Amino acid sequence: MRNKSILSEAKEIQIVTELIRLGARLQVLESNSNLSRERLIKLYKEIKGVSPPKGMLPFSEDWFMSWQPNIHSSLFINIYNYLIAYTEVRGIDAMIKGYKLYLEHLELNQMEQTLSLTRAWTLIRFIRSQILCTVPCNKCGGNFVVHAFDLHPNHVCKLCNIPSRAGKTKKTTRAVAAHIPQLDPA
Ligand SMILES: [Zn+2]
Predict the structure, then answer these.
(1) Could you give the CA distance from residue 30 to residue 48 in angstroms, rounded to a whole number?
(2) pLDDT digit string, tens, across residues 118-150
């Protein structure tokens, strides 16, 4: 599709710019735009002032299973699913909007960002390809990210079963995760 209208190209540049500002890696930009790799790199340099990092994305699905990442991933995916269920936004727009809402939740609760935009994007891909899914916690009813191939008859989430090493992050994490059940569109 080389004969694009100026308007659709402008829209693409706008989306890519937003993605770069939110911290997206080059691979994320490439799969969400028809702009050439050269133009994407140029845009990246213009916005960030440095070249995009090279190499493959290092992310495996296991990252989403460790304690803090699992809570952040679950929070994000609940926001995203809520947007899909109750609004008109779709695709990359839904991801950007969901990610911004996730960042807002962190700011409100004074928590550190754990899930990068690139990881959020990877998470959606893992869920679409049924490597990961969400299941409700048997205790709190919130939806949490799990391996799709595991069995989850009585899943207890990582908030209802906090490891002792979690220490002082416990309280603020609970505050953030309090949104998880409310955002459950089911
Ligand atoms: Zn729970």
Answers:
(1) 17
(2) 999 999 999 999 999 999 999 988 999 999 988
- pLDDT digit string, tens, across residues 33-57: 999 999 999 999 999 999 999 888 8
Q: Domain of 41?
A: 6-48
Question: From the CA of 165, how far away is ligand 1's center (Å)?
Answer: 18
Is there a single domain that holds both residue 119 and residue 33? Answer: no
CA 139 – ligand 1 centroid, Å: 5
- Going from the Cα of 25 to the center of ligand 1, the distance in angstroms, rounded, reads 32
175 in the same domain as 97: yes
Q: Which residues neighbour ligand 1 (ion) by CB within 5 Å?
A: 137, 139-140, 157, 160
CA-to-CA separations, 167 to 38, 115, 147, 163, 173, in angstroms, rounded: 46, 20, 26, 8, 11
Q: State pTM to two decimals.
A: 0.86
| Amino acid identity at 180 | I
